[in-house]
Amino acid sequence: MTIANSLSTDDRSTNTASTDSAGSAAQRDRRKRILDATYELAKDGGFDAVQMRAVAERADVALGTLYRYFPSKIHLLVSALDREFEDAQVKLKAREIPGDTPGDRVLYVLKRLTRGMQGDPKLTEALTRAFMFADASVANEIHAVGMSMTSIVTHAMHGTVPDSEAITDEDIVLARVIGDVWLSALMAWVTGRSSAPETAQHMETAVRLILR
Amino acid sequence: MTIANSLSTDDRSTNTASTDSAGSAAQRDRRKRILDATYELAKDGGFDAVQMRAVAERADVALGTLYRYFPSKIHLLVSALDREFEDAQVKLKAREIPGDTPGDRVLYVLKRLTRGMQGDPKLTEALTRAFMFADASVANEIHAVGMSMTSIVTHAMHGTVPDSEAITDEDIVLARVIGDVWLSALMAWVTGRSSAPETAQHMETAVRLILR
DNA sequence: CCCATAATAGGAACACGTTCTACGTTCTGA
DNA sequence: TCAGAACGTAGAACGTGTTCCTATTATGGG
User: Fold this and answer.
1) Would the CB atoms of B174 and A209 count as touching at under 8 Å?
2) Burial B99-110 (b: 16+ CB within 10 A, else e)
């Protein structure tokens, strides 16, 4: 599998069985209830408020069941992040992205994403910190998120949903570097080291620099 | 204070009292013992092995004292990271950096740093994950680390220890973006998503791109 | 329908970060 | 010198992530 091909969405099937698609309706239902509960708790109280007992209770499953579906709090939160990114990706692919240059389009998308996340600071704090804290055992979930992000950025660079063949190695490199910067900027914002405008400014400068 | 000026090392005095310089000899001694114990435990067993009771015991202080010096495990580990970076910075400033272009010099420094960290995977895992997990309460310590990193990169760009005035805003932007990429690459390596050669390659590509 | 197996509920138990209490020791300033 | 503050020790106690155990309930094949 080439790197470029690895961007097509259906490659997600190479992940662990813990992702969607597999299992009975009841199982899909439980998984959804758990992720919904996680989302709500995170949105209201951030990382600390996502307590496993609270998630289990709100999702109406036993604690052991929660751990059967998600082997740790970090897996749970990164999976929630993954779902958010999937949603964002679908929404973004639904229509053309405004902007005349790749830089304009990428900035449009990143700023839209960033504004969305900054509108839900607690949720963002919870998901971002989980993503950052993840260790090697969460590699699959993290990889999925990285894939979504790269896909979003390459999509923005091209302006339309690109064919797998139209994505060059150069595109991937650019998208990854932009993703790196975006993540660091988000982290600086989450930890209170930079304000929202500063975050936007840093991203603007960096993207202009990378896509110059 | 301008951004460029904020790079001079003695600005560290604007931090909380928990950093060096202040306190009696006994206090400096305790602080050093604690950081040494943290270093050793992290080096041997990574993040999970740095247990507060174990650190206290090895440093020969009471648990409460440990918490008096470092208000949380994350503060402790990020402070240890800060000490490592300070050391690296001093060593790097001791002599000229080889390389004909800023890109060459930056890559020389980054690869040296990265090799050093990859030679101590457990230690790197512990320090990196703490850095990533940090929340707003650790902003001071995180900021200090970011400062060291920016300083190291600008130093490498110039080839010699630069005067404060010689550092332009452009330099800072470049250094920050490079720092972002370096951090993300390190994180990908720590979480096992990319191998050491891949990490080096990604850094190489990104730095060439940014400093082109 | 019945059995074997897996999945779930409910909750106790454990580990480690963090806080708190009680008491001794050291420093400081009048 | 002495009172009081700050610091230190020892260890109990608490909260939350994680594991484990047992009984009960789906589920799917014969």
Assistant:
1) yes
2) eeebbbbbbebb
Token representation of residue A109: 């998308």
Q: Which of B62, B69, B63 is nearest to B35 (CA)?
A: B69
Specify whether the CB–CB gap between A107 and A207 falls below 8 A: yes
Question: A37 vs chain B: nearest CA distance in angstroms?
Answer: 23
The reply to whether residue A206 touches residue B180, judged by beta carbons under 8 angstroms, is yes
What's the rounded mean pLDDT across residues B152-173?
90
- The ipTM, to two decimals, is 0.87
CB proximity list for B111: less than 8 A, separation 6 or greater: B200, B203
Handedness of CA B130, B132, B138, B139 (dihedral sign): positive
Count of CB atoms situated within 10 Å of the CB of B56: 18
With beta carbons under 8 A apart, name residues in chain A contacting B142.
Answer: 191, 193
- Mean pLDDT of the region B38-45: 98
Q: Three-class SS of residue B126?
A: helix
Contact A190 B133 (CB under 8 A): no
Question: Nearest Cβ partner of B191 from A125, A136, A177?
Answer: A136
Residue A10 pLDDT: 35
Type of residue numbered B147: M
Q: Which residue, chain included where needed, has tokens 């114990």?
A: B37
Name the nt closest to B30 by C-alpha to C1'. Answer: D8
Min distance B210 CA to chain A CA atoms (Å) = 6
- The pTM assigned to this predicted structure is 0.89
Give B132's contacts (C-beta < 8 A, 6+ positions apart): A129, A132, A133, A187, B187
Q: Is the dihedral of CA B117, B123, B127, B133 positive or negative?
A: positive
Q: In angstroms, what separates the C-alpha of B96 from chain A's closest C-alpha?
A: 28
CB A202 within 8 A of CB A186: no
Terminal-to-terminal C-alpha distance of chain A? 30
